[in-house]
From TrEMBL:
Record-given protein name: Squalene cyclase C-terminal domain-containing protein
Record InterPro entries: Terpenoid_cyclase/PrenylTrfase
The entry's keywords: Membrane, Signal, Transmembrane, Transmembrane helix
Chain positions covered by the region annotation Disordered: 361-385
Native organism: Streptomyces natalensis ATCC 27448
Range of residues in the leader sequence: 1-24
TM region(s), chain numbering: 388-407
Biased composition, class Low complexity, residue ranges: 363-375
Amino acid sequence: MARRAAPALATAALLGAAAPAAYAGSPSPSASPKLPDGLYGTKDPQYDGVWRQSLALLAQHTVGVRPAASGVAWLAGQQCADGAFTAFRADPHQGCDTKTMRDTNQTGAAVQALAALGGHDAAVQKAVGWLKSVQNKDGGWSAMPGSPSDANSTSVVIGALAAAGEKPASVTKGGHSPYDALLAFQLGCDAKEGERGAFAYQPKDGKLAPNADATAAAALGALGEGFVVAPAGKDVDEPVKALGCTGGASGGAHDPRQAAPAADAYLVAQLDANGQHLPSAMPGAAQQPDVGNTVDAVVALAAGSHGAAAQRPLKWLEKHSADWARQSGPAAYAQLVLAAHATGADPRSFGGHDLVAALNATGPEPAGSAAPSAGPEKDAEDNDNGGIPWWVIGVGLAFGAGIGFLISGRKKKNQL
């Protein structure tokens, strides 16, 4: 999921760039202030408020729940006059200034949510205009404008453009499209055999290193998909095709539609090698399952019509995601709801848990039922990186890792 990503909250302090999950140079989180009406989750929204709100509203809308008016109003009220969103504005009546840390991941998530909900065309178009204004010359985006492009942020924005009715391939800067930027992050035939087809978050010292989080986000982005993926159906099962590297081929895919299957093949290999979950190991920590990245991988595989491949990690999630979602909050519940939706599973009976009811309980009471649509996504409480705390994301960024699908979440780092 890419796409998603992970919220972009990383910090200019460490890398001069940002990642959708936390500002790395930020101080330790303090006790949560009084939270505004309409906001989902109970943790401090300073780093992921718009991200988690967007995912929660998207997930509700996708499964036919009509979100509370106060929740939608809170999200819409977070927009700056220039169209951008930041993670959290405690006083929406106070205008954004030059010190306001505008964020492409938060903005991209908000666009996807508001476009799906309808009735916010002006806000969506203003946000899209801002995203276009901060596009890098390589065609991509970073979480924080002015920093080098990364795979997660570029993928989140591609999803936002598509949700707003734009053709991402036609949104160019310096003659380069978002897909040109995205393909530049994919490891090609010159890489080690087990790494081909993977995506890097960003080049480090001019080199690309495979990153499962970035790969899941980019697999969605390459298909022009956002957080919400139309159900593929359990019987739809396109074969997973690794990057073709025969006959002395070099480089990577030259077309997004070739890049996505190669990314999915890398994800499947990683899932198969690790018991149908993706691993995460922070520097100095023991390796453990990365639930958030595994959710993103399931959505990416479903988007690529790899039904059987998506069902295997989905079964793992049904058994192992409950504690993660409970601890992480609305974004995590939203991610799981969208993964269930993408794979044709029932989010109201997911491993014995009603994900929809759990998500609804993290915010204002829903207004009622609505016709399901295809345009929401996930969120993560306190971090958009699949339940990984903001300070962990900062550490990951310091080591040049990517973030979760997203970004950001996204967001979420998993250097494999």
